[in-house]
Amino acid sequence: MAKRKYGGRPNRAAKSPASGRDRSAGSPTPPGRDAERTSHDPTLLFGRHAVMAALGNPRRTVRALTGSAETAAELAEVVAALPETRRQALPVPRTATAEEIVALVGEGAVHQGLVARVDPLPDTALEEVLDAAGPQALLMVLDQVTDPHNLGAVLRSAAAFGADAVIVQDRHTPQVTAVVAKTASGALDVTPLVRVINLARALRSVQEAGFWCVGLAEEGPVALDTLDLSGRAALVMGAEGDGLRRLTRETCDQLVHLPTRAPIRSLNVSAAAAIALHHAAVAPGRKVG
């Protein structure tokens, strides 16, 4: 029988055609070089959802705000609808040409005519999340998911299905950059991202707070869709390719598998996370939307 792993291989960004030549070297410019550089910038947000979510988040400091001629009216309308204290904390939006925006975000970046220069969000401690957790709280835990696109996609699903936080191990998880924020589609400013040093220790703290920790693993003896995930629940997902580490598996209260079928039994970690989050979100007593 083929083994199930959650998740599969990391997503890979599509390569764009070479956009020019490097004059100093006399060779073609590497495809997407500018966008690749800006994708690692932790102070840059671009794209409609990422920028609009940052504007509405009082915990987010926005240093500069740029829109195209096409998005200027919508941007002004969104800012005008914010509470006065929030409006006063925001910079005056600047209207820029398409070329100026590309200069900010890099060739090939999907900016949708909106760019913001921001401060990184302040850290959220695990204790804060646990202290604020209600009786139907839902957590997503990632065990060394290393691909920034996967991290962003899981954050987006967590926000969509009402998770209270996403918990990650700091050392082997991507930092929050422009590419994570763009993939998260605004979720970074909606769902707290909690970074911990020791994941097994963090899981034990989560359990002590009354959460049932459910790990998705190929050896899980029961199918996810047979469980009642009402009450406080934490879903634990493993790294791309390797799945959950041994200590993480042993710390979970229950291991489960997704009821997939041959010939395709494995799913990308972000896809598996979305399925698990949906199952938890529709559990009795928990409301989404």
UniProtKB/TrEMBL annotation:
It comes from Thalassobaculum litoreum DSM 18839. One of its GO terms (molecular function) is RNA methyltransferase activity. It comes from the Bacteria. This is 23S rRNA (Guanosine2251-2'-O)-methyltransferase. Residues 44-124 form the RNA 2-O ribose methyltransferase substrate binding domain. One of its GO terms (cellular component) is cytosol. One of its GO terms (biological process) is methylation. Keywords: Methyltransferase, Transferase. Residues 1-40 are annotated as: Disordered. InterPro entries: Alpha/beta_knot_MTases, Ribosomal_eL30-like_sf, rRNA_MeTrfase_TrmH, SpoU_MeTrfase, SpoU_subst-bd, tRNA_m1G_MTases_N.
